[in-house]
Amino acid sequence: MAKTTATILGVIFLAIGLLGFGTPNMMGMHLTTTHNIILLISGLLALFFGWKGSLQAARGLCYVFGAVFTLVGLIGLLAGGPLLSIIPGQLMFGTADSIVHLIFGVLFLLGGFSTRHAAAATDHRA
């Protein structure tokens, strides 16, 4: 499941990152050039691990990305108010950004945790 999760979310990240250059306020988000570049790099990493990485590596990526995106989303909602400015004018997160980060974080974590159980069951049968 981690490889599938990484692949699907990688494609979504690439799409949002590319669309963000032309539509920086898509869905109420703050898609600056810096934010788009981070999304593109994250998407490429997720795709790489989803397509070429081992199951264990994809699961690790899901855990790391899940933790980071969930944490960024929580910080944005709890400490940011209407707009959390990480790098003024370059990397800012509003409520919509934080909610999207939380959703992606949870999806990555679900991909990682579901793989853990599936991998353990497969190893046990072998």
Supply the key terms.
126 residues; mainly alpha; two-stranded antiparallel ribbon; 4 helices
Give an overview in words:
By secondary structure, the protein is mainly α. It is 76% helix and 7% strand. The chain is built from 4 helices and 2 strands, in the order αααββα. It has helices at residues 2-22, 33-51, 55-79, 95-125, and strands at residues 83-87, 91-94. Strands 1-2 form a two-stranded antiparallel sheet. β1 and β2 (91-94) form a beta hairpin. α1 (2-22) runs antiparallel to α2 and α3 runs antiparallel to α4 (95-125). The longest helix has 31 residues, at 95-125. The radius of gyration is 15 Å and the shape is globular. The mean pLDDT is 88.
Indicate the topology.
Blueprint (H helix, E strand, L loop, with lengths): L1 H21 L10 H19 L3 H25 L3 E5 L3 E4 H31 L1
Antiparallel strand pairs: 1-2
Helix pairs in contact: 1-2, 1-3, 1-4, 3-4
How is the main sheet built? 2 strands, antiparallel
Shape, please? globular
Proportion of β residues?
5-15%
Question: Which stretches of 5+ consecutive residues score pLDDT under 50?
Answer: none
Radius of gyration: 15 Å
Structural class: mainly alpha
How are the strands ordered across the major sheet?
1-2
Distance between the termini: 19 Å
Helices, by number, come to 4
The average pLDDT is: 88
Provide the helix percentage: over 70%
